[in-house]
Amino acid sequence: MEKWTPIAVTWIDAYTIYSGTTSKEFNREYKRAIRRTIGWLIVHDRERIVVAMEDDRQSEEDTDVQTVTTIPLCMVQRIVVLRDAPTPKPRKKTT
Fold first, then answer.
1. Residue 55: which residues within 8 A CB-CB, separation 6 or more?
2. How many other CB atoms are there within 10 angstroms of residue 53's CB atom?
3. How many CB atoms neighbour CB 11 within 10 A?
4. Three-class SS of residue 56?
5. CA gyration radius for the chain?
6. Partner residues linked to 9 by β-bridges
7. Is 90 exceeded by the pLDDT of residue 85?
8. Which residues does residue 13 pair with via DSSP β-bridges, in sequence order?
9. Number of CB atoms found within 10 A of residue 36's CB
10. N or C: the chain end with fewer CB closer than 10 Å?
């Protein structure tokens, strides 16, 4: 895949409990956190995939991306390349 390819990445996120708890509670509370990140591919190598949710290449700023997510490749379940939707054909008029 080339840089700037529009993609959707499905991946398993880490689950964190921020309050005090016991180890017994952790086993009961665990919830598999499946995420989907949609954006433009920036990096895809042996360790990670990096997705930018905003493409700012045409902005007048000195940056080209914003809201960038780095996902360890071992957490990735699926990568889908997104394509433009086909233009619908005009409907025939009925009388």
1. 4, 39, 40, 64, 65
2. 13
3. 21
4. coil
5. 20
6. 37, 79
7. no
8. 33
9. 11
10. C
| Residue 89 DSSP code | P
Please state, in angstroms and as integers, the Cα–Cα distance from residue 76 to each residue in 9, 32, 44, 86, following that order: 7, 14, 11, 28
What tokens does 50 get?
Answer: 């990096």
54 touches 66 (CB < 8 A)? yes
- pLDDT tens, 43-82? 999 999 999 998 888 988 888 889 999 999 999 999 999 9
> Which residues, listed in sequence order, are joined to residue 36 by a DSSP beta bridge?
10
**Distance in angstroms (rounded) separating the CA atoms of residues 49 and 74:** 10
For the chain, what is the mean pLDDT?
A: 88
Do 50 and 35 form a contact (C-beta atoms < 8 A)? Answer: no
Q: Are 12 and 72 in contact (CB under 8 A)?
A: no
